[in-house]
Amino acid sequence: MTCQAALAPIAELSESDVINMLCDPTQLHVVFQPQVNLETGRIESAEALARWRHPALGMVAPSRFIPMVTAMELQGALFKRIARLTLAAATELDRAGIVLPLAINACADTLSDADNLNFLFDEARRSRVDASRLKIELTEDAPVKNMPALKAALSRLQDWGCTISMDDFGAGQANLGMLISLTINELKLDRKFAASISVSQVAQKSVRFAVELAKDMGWRVVAEGISTAAEFNAMYSLGCRYGQGFLLGRPMPLDGLSRCSR
Fold first, then answer.
1. With contact defined as beta carbons under 8 Å apart, do 203 and 172 qualify?
2. Minimal CB count within 10 Å: which of 13, 49, 63, 157?
């Protein structure tokens, strides 16, 4: 059976399925996609990605279930599940002697809810995971409803020791206006830049601008979606020193990440 055939048709998914997924510890798990130093080839962090294995329908793509979670306003519940799984993974890496920051995705609404941050802090303390081991990737799912609350949340996370990353810069809500309003530590370039970098002067100039801006601001830049050697070389030549994508490492289970990080 091909991977495509194994994915559950969205018409067959119900709200009850989503609720069960969030409550049943056997259905939801995480995999990790490496973020690589393009100069050394070493893995320097990894992004936790949600995966859902439905008991009857098989693997359900995130592009299918994340919109349902959002529509049901259950982003906070998903964040808590992923946070707990990611912190458990960080504990396992510690036991293996591997110090590797792990990134958790969260939308503005999720981060603006103090209950979600309190959960993260409490779980990290319980797991004895230092805050410096966590990155929070602000996703561009929807417009920010409460900018003061989001700014306060990001400040609280940074004071605690977390790295704040703006995900998918150049797509959706992740734009210059957001950069002006927020204090971040890392800028992740949307995958469309890597895909068109070899043929588009606009993409090239946009990447060069982002790299120079990040240099001036003290941010780290991560190029997402690097899938070919040509994309790697183009991003590197424009000054990008960190990347993520299938060429550098596909999403993998924790044991695979451990092996690759040694």
1. no
2. 63
Question: Is residue 49 situated within a structural domain?
Answer: yes
Q: pTM of this prediction?
A: 0.92
CA dist list (Å): 57 to 1, 9, 22, 54: 13, 8, 16, 5
Write out the H or E segment, with its range, that includes residue 232. helix 229-237
Tell me the torsion sign for CA atoms 56, 62, 63, 68: positive
* DSSP 8-state code for residue 175: S
C-alpha 28/C-alpha 88 separation (Å) is 14
Q: Range of 124's domain?
A: 26-261
Report the distance separating Cα 62 and Cα 161, nearest Å. Answer: 29
Residue 202: φ, ψ to 5°: -60, -45
The structural domain count of the chain equals: 1
CATH of the domain at 124: 3.20.20.450
Tokens of 100: 């590797």
- Per-residue pLDDT tens over the stretch 99-141: 999 999 999 999 999 999 999 999 999 999 999 999 999 997 7
Helix and strand element counts for the chain (H, E): 12, 9
* Of 109-123, 175-189, 246-260, minimum mean pLDDT range: 175-189
3-state class (DSSP) for residue 212:
helix
